[in-house]
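Session log. Operator J.P. requested a structure for one protein chain; no other inputs attached. Running the standard single-chain path with token output.
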Amino acid sequence: MSYSRFAIYYVPPAGPLADLGASWLGWDVVRGCEATQLNIAGLCDITMTPRKYGFHGTLKPPFRLRSDRTIAELKQFTLNLAERVEPAVCKGLYLTTMGRFLALAPQGETSALQRVAAACVRDLDMFRAPADAAELARRRKARLSDRQEELLVQWGYPFVMEEFKFHLTLSGPLPAADIAKWSDTIQRLLPDLNEPFIVDQIALCGQREDGRFELLHRYTLAG
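Structure written below.
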């Protein structure tokens, strides 16, 4: 299998949340195949944007592999990273809006999640091919702050390090009038989230020729 980009994600372990994420988006990132999407009018349309990524939380955003690096090296370095990074724990997850899209976000103190994501961005950056002019121009359409511009130039993405906000995306941009309706819909389907949210593993995922991401390997955080 050939992959155009790679990313480090948090992919929920097998269970009710992972099952709902796959059936909500219509793509199972773990199995690398389409999932039977819930029969809800309009759901296919509002999940079109996040569907190709699968249900996940980004830790290191998608990147192209440098020409002088191999997938085998990336896998080994990701294993080495996981062995020295401690798991992250926060109070739980809750449904929220980020801009005009729906997502699950962590409750309470998130510094441990920031630590894990920063390690992934920093320690694996040797594998990232520099962003080209077209990619930089596309990112700059978001009206970046001065600090976000610095991060874009340094790390290839503006919303990393202190600008990072962990979330698991549930929709594309929604019309303001529809946000409450879709919030109510997903809220009724969510499993119990009132328990500690633990990130004790990271997932190396690859983007296939069809544009969809799939899980390549999970790594347990053992620091």
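Operator note: The first strand starts at residue 5 and ends at 10.
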